[in-house]
Design goal:
Elements (H helix, E strand, L loop, with lengths): L5 E5 L6 H13 L7 E5 L5 H7 L4 E5 L16 H6 L4 E4 L2 H5 L5 H13 L3 E6 L3 H5 L3 H15 L9 E5 L13 H18 L2 H6 L1 E5 L7 H5 L6 E4 L8 H5 L6
Helix pairs in contact: 5-7, 7-8
């Protein structure tokens, strides 16, 4: 089954109106491979501003949202609010949310389910710490995190709104990158897990993207791997080199 290549840019807590105008400038100038789905995640304050200025081929995403529609949850935003300002994507479960803000597998799964049930597509992040990899626990951790999400997704049709992002925590922002072979190994095993625990159709169709210090130098080799369906890019998404990552599959 042909899966459309997907590249997400996570701006994290970076940017100003001036910076965002610069990013939008190089995204508008391109070129951007039309066969690639491109989504950028702005800080919440800038979602509405960025969405109105981005080229029509680039979608806007939030970096987080909560598991309720509304209520006394100071500082949170809901999928309903995102939709209200034209935002149809959200990143959930990023390692920085799991570690710094101590979000549990259960909470992340609940947020994933609420988002897709309310019409917002998700980039659901999973991945192991360095100590876990060194202790041969990569599969245990990744499968546990995925299982929590799977158990909350009540309808197979919702998987059309889910992109899984494998992000080994030890490779995020460190300059270290999993080798193409290491990344492919995890992606392939995760796809088999989905085949055995969700259904073959979901395993074949769901996009599993890689994140962890992806840059213009390593993106093409990673993109050649059969089960790597794109990237979630951090710091490089703030720079013009992001275009080269979006175009990593050009000519393949």
């Amino acid at each position: 089954m042909q899966r459309r290549f997907f590249v997400g840019g996570n701006w994290k807590m970076n940017g100003s109106l001036h910076n965002i105008d610069e990013i939008i400038g190089f995204l508008t100038c391109g070129p951007l491979n039309p066969d690639v789905e491109v989504v950028v995640a702005a800080p919440a304050l800038y979602i509405d501003y960025a969405s109105k200025k981005l080229p029509p081929t680039v979608a806007i995403s939030a970096q987080n949202c909560y598991k309720e529609e509304k209520g006394a949850f100071t500082g949170e935003i809901s999928p309903a609010m995102l939709k209200d300002v034209g935002c149809r994507w959200v990143i959930l479960g990023h390692s920085e949310r799991r570690t710094i803000f101590e979000e549990s597998d259960e909470l992340i799964a609940e947020k994933c389910a609420h988002a897709v049930e309310n019409g917002v597509s998700i980039i659901a992040c999973i991945g192991e710490q360095l100590e876990e990899r060194e202790n041969d626990l990569t599969e245990t951790v990744v499968f546990r995190q995925t299982k929590a999400i799977v158990e909350k997704i009540s309808c197979l049709e919702y998987w059309d709104k889910i992109v899984l992002a494998y992000e080994p925590v030890w490779a995020i922002g460190t300059g270290k990158t999993a080798t193409p072979e290491q990344a492919q190994d995890v992606h392939k095993k995760l796809r088999k897990w989905l085949n055995d625990n969700v259904c073959p159709d979901v395993a074949k169709s769901v996009r599993i993207i890689y994140g962890g210090s992806v840059n213009e130098k390593n993106c093409r080799e990673l993109a050649k791997k059969e089960d790597i369906d794109g990237f979630l890019v951090g710091g490089a998404s703030l720079k013009p080199e992001f275009l080269k990552i979006v175009n990593a599959t050009a000519g393949m």
